[in-house]
From TrEMBL:
<dbReference type="InterPro" id="IPR042098">
    <property type="entry name" value="TauD-like_sf"/>
</dbReference>
<dbReference type="GO" id="GO:0008336">
    <property type="term" value="F:gamma-butyrobetaine dioxygenase activity"/>
</dbReference>
<dbReference type="GO" id="GO:0005739">
    <property type="term" value="C:mitochondrion"/>
</dbReference>
<comment type="similarity">
    <text>Belongs to the gamma-BBH/TMLD family.</text>
</comment>
<keyword id="KW-0408">Iron</keyword>
<feature type="domain" description="TauD/TfdA-like">
    <location>
        <begin position="117"/>
        <end position="367"/>
    </location>
</feature>
<keyword id="KW-0560">Oxidoreductase</keyword>
<dbReference type="InterPro" id="IPR012775">
    <property type="entry name" value="GBBH-like"/>
</dbReference>
<dbReference type="InterPro" id="IPR003819">
    <property type="entry name" value="TauD/TfdA-like"/>
</dbReference>
<keyword id="KW-0223">Dioxygenase</keyword>
<dbReference type="InterPro" id="IPR050411">
    <property type="entry name" value="AlphaKG_dependent_hydroxylases"/>
</dbReference>
<keyword id="KW-0124">Carnitine biosynthesis</keyword>
<dbReference type="Pfam" id="PF02668">
    <property type="entry name" value="TauD"/>
</dbReference>
<feature type="domain" description="Gamma-butyrobetaine hydroxylase-like N-terminal">
    <location>
        <begin position="13"/>
        <end position="92"/>
    </location>
</feature>
<dbReference type="Pfam" id="PF06155">
    <property type="entry name" value="GBBH-like_N"/>
</dbReference>
<protein>
    <recommendedName>
        <fullName>gamma-butyrobetaine dioxygenase</fullName>
        <ecNumber>1.14.11.1</ecNumber>
    </recommendedName>
</protein>
<comment type="function">
    <text>Catalyzes the formation of L-carnitine from gamma-butyrobetaine.</text>
</comment>
Amino acid sequence: MNLGIQKVEALDTGHFVRVEWEDGSESRYPCVWLRDNCQCPRCFLRSARARRLFFEDLDVNIVVKEVALADRRKISITWPDEHASEYEAEWLKKRCFSEEARAEMREDLFLPERQYWGSDLQLPKIPFEEIMYNDESAYKWLCTLKKVGIVLLTGAATRQGELVKLGHRIGFLRLTFYGPTWQVQDKADANNVAYTTGKLCFHTDYPVLQHPPGVQFLHCIKQTAAGGESGVVDGFHVSNKLKKQNPQAYQILSSTAVDYTDVGVDYCDFAMQCKQRIIDVDSRGQAVRINYNNATRDTVFDIPAEKVRPFYAALKEFDDLLNSTEHKFTYKLKPGDIATFDNWRVLHGRQSYQAGSEVTRHLEGAYADWDVVMSRLRLLRKRIQNRD
């Protein structure tokens, strides 16, 4: 971005600064925002990229005293208290308040684009070793994980500990009451339905936590000959279908707080309680997280009695859509495969399999937070761009 500045002036009795760019476009910046984001050493700690200016010292009605074009790459502002600020053209252009510029910034920072899918999913696959040692492959993995919601890593060693390596690759894993990693296999006196040979219905993991893990990893170490197939469904795609098909059901599921519970002993003893909406939505009513695990949905239901049946009817319609053949994708993990998927978006399940005298199916699981994953994605992108 090498756009120069043609002209700069104060507008609206000094409450805005207007910048005219060399290509004829213009940007308007509120003065309170400019003062709040002064880049001088007194107001901004550059080594930490953090604001030093106290909000209590900010005049929200501030106007510029003087604004000037230092050169075509910089503007300078003098404030009423004689404090001086300078702003680089590139810095300003990137933070333009136009809808187009803000959309571009959202895309750059958060990668909001989604590719929806159903039974037609072309499951993305990348070799495990590639993403471990090649930055371009790791970046592709994380971008695809954000966009599609699921990526299969292939060719990992069939032993415990590979997910710890994967955690180090992105930063670190999420510790939960089931430990830093956990073993999905048939266990006596199982403290989780996953630790049985039975069928697992479509669910997201850990809605009993206030902040459920954003990303889940499942590493296949041993696979049963018959049964044990995995299934996934795009919860955002299904939510959109429900919203069109039955807006009232969507409204119920996105507004009713459902009680979840999980009590037991594993990494340590625990007694978890939480309230979650089945479909979490943003300010525009778009689904941003699915919180649905029938196994840990509590017998306690903290809503008026007359609202219970309408809720069940809405959830039944959502569940039917999740299980419809057009929406679910089925595959079978092979030893060495690692399924990596968005636990806020992708619901997963598995078919039952036969119990044996010894363990016939063994997956190791782990979680990571989206904050950690997105941090690594941005750092990888920067590293790759700096090479070009």
